[in-house]
Specification:
250 residues; alpha+beta; 30% strand
Length: 250
Amino acid sequence: MIPSCQILPCARSAEVFDRVKNGSVAGAVIPIENSLAGSVAEHFDLLLNRDVFIQREFQLRIIHNLMAAPGVKVRDLRKALSHPVALEQCRDFFRENPSIEPVPFYDTAGSVKHVIERHLTDSAGIAGVQSASVYGAKILKSGIEDDKRNYTRFFLIRKQRKMLPGANKTSIVFGVKNVAGALFKALSVFALRDITLSKIESRPVKGKPWEYVFYLDFLRGPDEAAANALRHLAEIAEPLKVLGIYPAAE
């Protein structure tokens, strides 16, 4: 998404967002949704609670590889480490290999680094192919994801609320009162203007049990119809936050 950038690692997602918010980095790329495992809930929460703006989205074909230290065989393995979302995408592999325990780790590539640096002979990491060359691991099995139509959607987030040319998709988050017809009325502001919704998902509000906000993507950029829909929605929604207006990934 930014070929010429200098890459800075972060141990936690909150740190990524905070670095963007305080201006210590120019931007960040975060995964937001996978076609098999669903949404990355923590990142939705951080988009609501941090003052950042979605500038681009990108869909990446995900291929998961089982890799370990040279000389280690599949029959030697007792554990496979990777990010929890990646583990969820490889359920069939673990069902077929019950002697290998899935172990959540902070990162996919980081799991391979950990296995190699600790000289673990009973563990493997699950990550993209590049991790093998970077950390000197051997790929034991390729393409262990459940479905080959496995894509992850990424956002490029920045501090500045700047739209790129060709922006034709909008992400928002809003809440409504828990009264009859409230969500219907909120969604009608888009239907009345023939605006297509591409995603809607609810998330619980922290500190307010059984209250929810709704994350919604719609396929319009900064045109008059979208602006009118958002003004109409603001009359019945609290809170309402525009998370980004950006070109839709092809």
